[in-house]
Each structure stands twice: as structure tokens, then as C-alpha cells.
Write a structure and sequence with these properties.
This protein is an alpha+beta fold and about 130 residues long. The chain has two domains: about 5-40; about 50-130, Immunoglobulin-like (Sandwich), CATH 2.60.40. The chain is built from two helices and six strands. About 15% of the residues are buried.
């Protein structure tokens, strides 16, 4: 017996059957994780949708034009809520807009909103799949 074995004890040796069982368990866990990642990543219900404000134009005291960009898979129907805010950040104009289906991934839209008082900004509140 060497000094290290006397000090720390002998390590347990694994039998061939225990090694194979450990390898099989590791492979099962790896396969399960891979299948779960594939299933989550290819879920057709999880279409990516992004909306981005590009700008606005105050036409007069009761009208604003909001310009925004929507990125979604081509041919997907989308509805967006567009809003106008006043200087105290209250909503003074709001409209749901069904966007036309396009053949491109990204499309730019201009929406004209009527407001209850002078707006100071306009933006896309939210977009969703129709």
C-alpha cells in the first residue's frame, strides 16, 4: 500500500456493468434534452412577430400619423394597436388596425389617428397574430 492509499483510502473501481449503465443513463438524458429543444424550437404556433416605431407626424391638434415597421413570416395576418399620447402621457387616440398580408418578411405601415386633444407622440402599443 502506497502512502497516498494509506492516507486517503482506495478508490472504488466500477464494474463493467456499472459503467455501461452510467453511459446509457447519460445518453438517455442527452437524447431527451435534444428532443425537447427540437420540439420547442420547431413549434409552428411560435411565429416570431416584431413591431418597431419609425416615427410620427403631428398633422394638427386632432390628427397624428404613426409610421411603424412590422416583421413577421410572409403571408401572416397581423393586427396592431396604435396609440397617440398627450404631453401628460394620457392616451388621446387609439385604434386597432388589421394590416394587409404581404409577401415580404418586413413591411412599413402608416396609420392616421384622430385624437381627442393635441398629441405629442404616436406609437405602436402592441401587435398580435390575427
Amino acid at each position: 500500500m502506497t502512502d497516498l492509499q494509506a492516507r486517503y483510502g482506495r478508490t472504488r473501481s466500477w464494474s463493467r456493468q456499472q459503467r455501461l449503465l452510467g453511459i446509457a443513463a447519460g445518453l438517455v438524458m442527452l437524447l431527451t434534452a435534444t428532443l425537447w429543444i427540437w420540439w420547442v424550437g420547431t413549434d409552428p404556433a411560435r411565429t416570431s412577430l416584431q413591431a418597431r416605431d419609425l416615427g410620427y407626424e403631428i398633422v394638427d391638434d386632432t390628427t397624428i400619423r404613426v409610421v411603424f415597421d412590422v416583421s413577421v413570416e410572409a403571408g401572416t395576418p397581423v393586427t396592431c394597436a396604435v396609440e397617440a399620447l398627450s404631453s401628460d402621457y394620457s392616451i388621446v387616440g387609439w385604434q386597432e388596425v388589421e394590416l394587409p398580408v404581404t409577401d415580404a418578411f418586413s413591411s412599413t405601415h402608416v396609420v392616421e389617428l384622430r385624437t381627442s386633444k393635441r398629441p405629442t407622440t404616436g406609437l405602436v402599443s402592441e401587435c398580435w397574430l390575427s
